[in-house]
Known about the structure:
- This protein is an alpha+beta fold.
- The chain is built from eleven helices and 20 strands.
- The strands form four sheets. An eight-stranded antiparallel beta sheet has the order 13-14-15-16-17-18-19-20, covered by helices on one side. It has a six-stranded mixed beta sheet with strand order 2-3-4-7-8-12, sandwiched between helices.
- Strand 5 (197-205) and strand 6 form a beta hairpin.
- The radius of gyration is 23 Å and the shape is globular.
Amino acid sequence: MTATTAWLAxxxxxxxxxxxxxxxxAVVEQLARxxxxxxxxxxxxxxxxxxxxxxxxAGDYDGASDRGKLASALTDDLVEASNDLHFAVGxxxxxVADYVARQDPARVAALREEERRSEAGRNFGFAGLRYLEGNxxxxxxxxxxxxxxxxxxxxxxxRFIENGDAVIYDLRYNxxxxxxxxxxxxxxxxxxxxxxxxxxxxxxxxGRRVERGQWVLPALPAKRLTGKPVYVLxxxxxxxxAEWFAYTLKKLGRATLVGExxxxxxxxxxxxxxxxxxxxxxxxxxxxxxxxxxDFEGQGVAPDHPVASADALAVAHxxxxxxxxxxxxxxxxxxxxxxxxxxxxxxxxxxxLKAIAGRYEGRRIDLVDGKLLYTWRDRFRLTLEPLGGDLLxxxxxxxxxxxxxRKGGKVGALERIDRDGTTQSYARLD
Length: 430
């Protein structure tokens, strides 16, 4: 069972003829039926479906001239009506055809091999493993891969960190994935001879309700980290399974969370075809914590130490060193030596940053405590780091950056520059 962020869902355009009014009505009607058949909350599904029909009747989709634009508009309306960021509508006829063809074992095997190769190219989510000063293990995890495919990578990572005096899991930019991988990794933090539930949930499976509990695994490929301090870095882009990993460890008193409140996507999801071209990414179940059977849908997970996500690693590192000193005062000298390296770095001049702050098309940049904070959809927020020459790096993002475009000596636009050289400009509005 997987989860993918709505704001990262693929929406692919097609070269087919423009959609007619009848085409759009057919898509909305098919989408409503798919929603009502699969959404975890049937009563809400009917209300949301009615909202989509009202948008259709009001002509709100008249400007969506192609399938990609219609999918984007439907996604926005689904998210707004439900406040559930798991929802997404996409255009992918090839995926729909594959979905239909999945009764063919050969096709299923081929798709599984494609998934394995794709995951291997991303090292099954393990983007970085290293030891920080003070013998503190650090795990940079971009997503939670299917453990059936990524078990060896997970086992290697678990063995790599087993000798750390403390461990930091970096989930600031983790968009979720398979809860079973979260179960495997979390099991290293608990004793294996004591029953401990991690996740309790139910979901719809082809019209059948399935209820499951996931517990600490009794056998692991590495030593356990029982009793060692654990820190989880969170950000506004931490989503779904990443949030559950953080939330459960916090509930069980096993980890300290450092960073920003997470996005608030607690529900497991699945993809369902809509007609022959579209798909609906829909929440199909509900996960509950093992203590009071609650969740964080729409609210996010609050960190124990709220700090800008860009500063979370340095703060967690300092906290870990301080905790280790409490346990072993002999480490005080080493901690004091490392303190200057972990201190906050000087910021650029306030005047230069103030000139950049403002509203741009579909987004804004705020100057907060001497830092540029980039916000889109009024929910997601990342720090911008000046690189010189009007270039701005985006916290946690490797494949694009921004450039400030000046006109007549004033900032006139924000230009996104992708790694492949393509650009997109957002005009300044204030």
